[in-house]
Amino acid sequence: MRKTRYAAVAFAAAAALTLSACGGDSGDEAGSGATGDGEKITVGIKFDQPGLGFKDGNDYTGFDVDVAKYVANELGYSEDQIEWKETPSAQRENVLENGEVDMIFATYSITDARKERVAFAGPYFVAGQDLLVNADNTDITGPEDLNGKNLCSVTGSTSAQKVKDTLASDVNLLEQGGYANCVTAMQGGQIDAVTTDDIILAGLASTDANAGKFKVVGNPFSEEKYGVGISKDSTQCEAINTAIRKMVEDGSWAEAIKTNTEGADYQFDESVNPPEPEACA
Ligand code: GLU
To answer: Closest Cα partner for 171 from 194, 189, 201, 188?
Structure first.
């Protein structure tokens, strides 16, 4: 796994430090056509979000990975025809636009701003933005408690954007390339809280290395609809939505969310899950 290191963090009111992890290798060429036919399909996921998109040696695990495998299979691609590519939050639109990936399953919220550059199938899950704090923290119970605090989130995410748009200017926002880096910073004492989607935070808090150290506040303050990112000229939106519906109907969706959140202190919101895919543009 790629790690971003930094020696010292200086917070300035106006300048947020931005360190981003860059994707390395370029993906194999993959058809944007309808079926596999021995070709590869390149799928963008996170590599550092346990329970969602996680690279463990040569294995890829998590709910996003399971939904991606199911959808790819429905599109005619077996598991060994999938080329996994790391797509950090800030790079998702770019890699879809330049054709480096065919589909993205990476806790990728559907937003109007993103729809200017890319298209979405789905959603296949709905999460909510929340806060991760030290297990013994008692003074941060929601976004209103963040004044004067050091907060960490990820460049190019809706989570960082929401902090900039709605939280008071005396919140110090540190932007990193991935949420695991934020957790490392909190462990080092530079950070009071990490903010992103509740399911991501719960997954990070549940790893063996982090067990007992952190807690998710449990006061979600947004609705994040996870879509399948595709390029604007992709013809796959309907087929992906059909696959998602089938995954829900045959029980595979419920099984996937259950197994991938098993060790985490997380209960998905049943009033909005599983969501019905939206009409394709
Ligand atoms: N779902 C949010 C987003 O798409 C936050 C998680 C992420 O950065 O992947 O920006």
So the answer is: 194
237-275 burial, b at 16+ Cβ within 10 Å, e below that, comes to: bebbbebbeebbeeeebeebbeebbeebebebeeeebbb
Per DSSP, the residues of 232-279 read TT-S-HHHHHHHHHHHHHTTHHHHHHHHHHTTSS----TTT-SPPPPP
- Consecutive sets of 10 residues in the chain, 281 residues long: mean pLDDT of each? 30 30 36 61 98 97 98 97 98 98 98 98 98 96 94 98 85 96 96 98 97 96 98 98 98 98 95 98 87
Dist. CA 101–CA 47, nearest whole Å: 15
11 with 96, same domain: the answer is yes
CB distance 157 to ligand 1 below 6 Å: yes
| CATH code of residue 15 | 3.40.190.10
Give the span between the Cα atoms of 103 and 70, in whole angstroms.
Answer: 13
Give me ligand 1 centre to Cα 276, in Å: 20
Q: How many domains, the chain?
A: 2
The kind and range of the H/E element at 28 are none
Domain range for 202: 129-216
Atom of ligand 1 nearest to the CA of 49: 9
